[in-house]
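Category: protein sequence paired with discrete backbone structure
Discipline: computational structural biology
Format: plain text, a pair of labelled lines
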Amino acid sequence: MTIKIMNRSKHALPNYETVASAGMDLRADLTEPVVLKPLQRAIVKTGLFIELPVGFEAQVRPRSGLAAKKGVTVLNAPGTIDADYRGEIGVILVNLSDTDFVVEDGERIAQLVIAKHERAGWETVESLSETIRGEGGFGSTGVR
């Protein structure tokens, strides 16, 4: 699949780091560093604009290393970029650690996964089929 992209950043296009990678790293496109204090959030721009085919979305997801090592993650993860959006890709970062985190220009801040999706229609009914699980949710299937 080929996706149209405008790169207004000073960084290379996102790419897959390995042959089996599902996501491509997104980099911060900044004129000056952004300081995220503990529990602070900010939208960090990437300088990238994309045109997805209808039936696809781009999912903005956290980078596991950034989350595990620094306590910084993506809010509303995964964030969805719809096929009809033409604005700049921004990443909502939040600092969940107890120390300041500085986002530097060019830093890998999130990953982008391209995914196919379906459009659903609704059928109004009076009852649903029975299952073993039934209405059990939020941990009802056990802890193991």
The chain has a mean pLDDT of 95. The chain has one domain: 4-116. The radius of gyration is 19 Å.
